[in-house]
């Protein structure tokens, strides 16, 4: 019906040859009579199809905004801006400045704006930052705009930073609880002069516990503790101490407490360690609180640490056994073995040794045995770790 297969193939070959010849000259889209996809210009379509291998930034005149909003075009402009001449940067800038806001909120365009905050001249950065005015809250809450605000805060001078930040006054809690806005508030705290951020501290009054137990709020509280003045952090820490017991056991709050133990002043660490004392057995078996107990053991003073380890050494055999085979508490025991003073470690290890046989049966108990063996190698005077050889027969 179709004739011989060889003649069909030769006809197909001829058509393919014509197609290749024509497409090489004018582009496939022209051959099939189609316009460039999704309203793209011929320049962008050709670029996307690798038909312009050595395209230069200056050749994008009147196409910068279109390229910035295209995945491949945006990446091309970003790469070129890093090594662009002053004239090339200015040409690109002149085209994007009129569309700055729409580019800031665009999935690909926001990266081009960010590059200008990184590699633009000081004048270009200042002009771009002025385009943010009146829109800071909307941008902070927007998926792509929030990245632009963060980059701007890293790149502009203090007086402009403060202008940007002031627009968030009255909207702090809304931003903190937002998946995008919280990153902007964190960046404000990291980059801006603390005295210009007092409105953030004021907004947190009476809210510290609620924010510390919030997936985004807990990060913002940590940034405040890192970057704000002692005068500003004092009321925040006051509220934290009022809720220590609940925070220690909260899936987000425990990170705030750990942060104070790692980076806080000695008096605040001491209050937290005091809050754990007397509750080591109970808190060590808790998924979140056990991390706090570990941090207490690591960051306490020598005297405080000795008291915490003494608490463990004072447990009856059953309580100690419960801790050593527990999926969370075993890590507290390991940490205590690690950081104890030699005399106290010896007491602790002798206390543990009667349990060696039963610990081998438990996944987490084996961790304790490995830790004991490590220290036995360093201190053989402790005697053999395992059961007597005859027990193996």
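^ structure tokens above, recovered residues below v
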């Amino acid at each position: 019906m179709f004739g011989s297969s060889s003649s069909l193939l030769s006809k197909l070959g001829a058509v393919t040859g014509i197609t290749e010849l024509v497409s090489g000259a004018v582009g496939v889209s022209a051959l099939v009579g189609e316009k460039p996809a999704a309203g793209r210009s011929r320049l962008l379509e050709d670029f996307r199809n690798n038909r312009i291998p050595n395209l230069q930034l200056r050749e994008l005149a009147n196409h910068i905004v279109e390229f910035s909003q295209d995945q491949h075009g945006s990446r091309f402009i970003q790469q070129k801006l890093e090594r662009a001449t002053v004239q090339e940067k200015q040409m690109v800038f002149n085209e994007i400045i009129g569309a700055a806001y729409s580019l800031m909120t665009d999935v690909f365009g926001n990266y081009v704006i960010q590059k200008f905050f990184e590699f633009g001249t000081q004048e270009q950065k200042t002009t771009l930052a002025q385009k943010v005015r009146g829109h800071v809250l909307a941008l902070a809450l927007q998926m792509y705009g929030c990245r632009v605000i963060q980059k701007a805060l890293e790149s502009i001078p203090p007086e402009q930073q403060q202008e940007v930040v002031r627009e968030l006054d009255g909207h702090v809690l809304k931003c903190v609880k937002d998946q995008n806005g919280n990153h902007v508030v964190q960046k404000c705290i990291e980059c801006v002069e603390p005295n210009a951020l007092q409105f953030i501290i004021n907004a947190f009054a009476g809210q510290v516990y609620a924010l510390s137990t919030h997936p985004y709020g807990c990060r913002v509280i940590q940034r405040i503790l890192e970057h704000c003045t002692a005068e500003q952090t004092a009321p925040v820490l006051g509220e934290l101490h009022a809720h220590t017991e609940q925070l220690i056991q909260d899936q987000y709050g425990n990170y705030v407490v750990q942060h104070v133990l790692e980076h806080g002043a000695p008096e605040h660490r001491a209050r937290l360690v005091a809050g754990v004392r007397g509750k080591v057995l109970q808190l060590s078996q808790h998924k979140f609180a056990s991390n706090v107990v570990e941090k207490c053991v690591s960051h306490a003073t020598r005297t405080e640490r000795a008291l915490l380890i003494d608490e463990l050494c004072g447990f009856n055999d059953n309580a100690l056994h419960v801790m050593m085979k527990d999926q969370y508490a075993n890590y507290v025991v390991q940490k205590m073995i690690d950081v104890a003073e030699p005399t106290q470690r010896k007491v602790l290890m002798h206390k543990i040794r009667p349990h060696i046989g039963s610990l081998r049966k438990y996944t987490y108990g084996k961790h304790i045995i490995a830790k004991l063996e490590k220290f036995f190698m360093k201190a053989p005077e402790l005697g053999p770790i395992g059961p007597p050889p005859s027990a193996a027969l």
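The chain has a mean pLDDT of 87.
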